[in-house]
Amino acid sequence: MAVTFYLKIADIYKDNREVLTRALLRCAKIYEDKDDLQTALGVYMKIAKDNTEESRFARERIEWIKARIK
């Protein structure tokens, strides 16, 4: 349910990079907490495309997840 909310926020504010990124980060964390690492990885990959602090964090999480999936 929370993921749906954050995805809706991300869609509504897709032109506001800060709100979009924060909503996606929340989604990724929820997926991680549910051990749905593949989905979290996909969300982090969307965030990693930008050149922000959050994108650097997302790239770190991507590496962490890839190490766990192998």
What does this structure look like?
- This protein is mainly α and about 70 residues long.
- It is about 80% helix and about 0% strand.
What features would you highlight for this structure?
about 70 residues, mainly alpha, 4 helices, flat
Classification by helices and strands:
mainly alpha
The whole-angstrom Rg is: 11 Å
Largest sheet: none
> How many DSSP helices?
4
**Tally of DSSP β-strands:** 0
Distance between the termini: 29 Å
Helix content: over 70%
Mean pLDDT rating: 95
> What is the percentage of strand-forming residues?
under 5%
Q: Please write the string of helix (H) and strand (E) elements.
A: HHHH
Overall geometric form:
flat
Spans of at least 5 consecutive residues whose pLDDT stays below 50 are none
What count of structural domains?
Answer: 1
